[in-house]
From TrEMBL:
This is FMN dependent NADH:quinone oxidoreductase. It comes from Qipengyuania pacifica. The gene is azoR. It catalyses: N,N-dimethyl-1,4-phenylenediamine + anthranilate + 2 NAD(+) = 2-(4-dimethylaminophenyl)diazenylbenzoate + 2 NADH + 2 H(+); 2 a quinone + NADH + H(+) = 2 a 1,4-benzosemiquinone + NAD(+). Quinone reductase that provides resistance to thiol-specific stress caused by electrophilic quinones. Gene3D superfamilies: 3.40.50.360.
Length: 203
């Protein structure tokens, strides 16, 4: 059965503007795939703690996957493995990912579990899957109109690529701090999702 994992990374949770259009797209997709399921995670409500010493020592020691310090990491990794599609709605904070999403990455990007080393290079252990990242920013971050750096896009490409997920696409809701363009940007985001291979024909 097809399963979609939807991650909310905004402090506003599912009420954030990026999450709003993500909901619309995911619900439309599910309506056309009634046997499919949607699993949601509000990463702020999850309230992940920074990785602790026991976790680091378990990595260094090569402890088995069922080690107590890997319990939450295993839960999140298995959730990621179980989905056939992944959608992330995230703001851009200080030019990059918000802390809630960074902590989720710290828990799922794990040596010996989601990637290994081969000839000194990191090689992903997960199966590739369609992944759509909906990025909300107050300023303009793409194209000639960009007014601030973007350290989010390539970072996420590198993170998912390290785990074996290369089919990653981005939808940008830019300039959302400007009331005169915010609604137009939201509509442009909906149109972009409508042509996204993950949602095409269902938005």
């Amino acid at each position: 059965m097809s399963r979609l994992l939807l991650l909310h990374a905004s402090p506003l949770g599912s009420e954030a503007r990026g999450s709003t259009i993500a909901y619309q797209a995911c619900n439309a997709w599910q309506s056309q795939n009634p046997r499919a399921s949607i699993v949601e995670r509000d990463l702020n409500k999850l309230a992940l703690e920074p990785l602790q010493r026991g976790y680091v020592e378990a990595i260094v020691d090569g402890s088995p996957h069922h080690h107590d310090d890997f319990t939450l990491s295993e839960e999140l990794i298995q959730e990621l493995e179980a989905c056939s599609r992944l959608v992330i709605a995230t703001p851009m904070h200080n030019f990059t990912v918000p802390s809630s999403l960074k902590l989720w990455i710290d828990y799922v990007l794990r040596h010996g579990r989601t990637f290994t080393y081969q000839s000194g290079r990191k090689v992903g252990s997960l199966q590739d899957k369609p992944t759509t990242v909906i990025v909300t920013s107050g300023g303009m971050v793409t194209g000639a109109a960009a007014s601030q750096p973007d350290h989010l896009t390539q970072y996420l490409r590198d993170v998912f690529g390290t785990m074996g997920i290369s089919n990653v696409r981005f939808v940008y809701l830019e300039g959302m701090a400007r009331l005169d363009v915010a609604m137009d940007m939201l509509e442009a985001g909906r149109r972009a999702l409508a042509t996204d291979p993950l949602f095409a024909g269902s938005v």
